[in-house]
Amino acid sequence: MDIVQIITLAILQGLTEFLPISSSAHLILVPHLFNWSDQGLAFDVAVHVGTLIAVVTYFRRDLKQLISECYLAQCRHQTSPSTNLAGCIILASIPAILVGLFLSDFVEIYLRAPIIIAFANIGFAFALWWSDSIHQPRRNEYALTYRDALIIGLAQACAFIPGASRSGTTIMAGLLLGLDRQAAARFSFLLSIPLIFGAGSLLTLKLMLHSTPVDWFALLLGTLISAISAYACIHYFLKMLDKIGMLPFVIYRLLLGAFLLIVLVPNA
Questions:
Q1: Total number of domains constituting the chain
Q2: pLDDT of 152-161, one tens digit each?
Q3: Domain extent at residue 37
């Protein structure tokens, strides 16, 4: 990997992991457009670690409060809004974990085609626009029920389709369930922590089973850049979300889907 490829893919991973525009689609398409060789399993692990560092660092106070309040609630045999939120995060993670364990090979073989990414971008763009336009905010993430968490978890599992977007599907589900935009985004980002950790662990396990040489410079640089870009993305996305809504991302997804159908699909 040359320096341009490292920087480009690391920034892409950092930005698209948390914006509702599909990180997997961009990491498939950009190398295809520039005729780059596959970045390899080790680099995928590195940029996942970078985004995990970013989200944990950004929400460090929330996570510290969540863990401490859950511990106190367990000691006192009580429930609290924090224990409820923790339970919702755990429950909502289960569908995606199951899909990742049992269907990841199917996704890798059959669902990475440009035409699928194009239609997923367009279809989920309309779903995101619809959910944002009709949503009636009335609560935050601490008021989620386990039923709500399961629905959001099933929506997250749909993001294994390249082009669907993990953050896009979870924010969409949160909006439809009555979360305000900030709450839907925060829950989506908190929900990413176990999933990114699990995906990174699985990739690391696969990497350990291979004997290919490792370019440590590329890995360290990729981790650093993806962490910085992901942290900036989370900060400014949450800061601007109430002002801009989902429409800019809907338009971007429609344009990307149209581009794929016009340019890439006929040549695939």
A1: 1
A2: 999 999 988 9
A3: 3-267
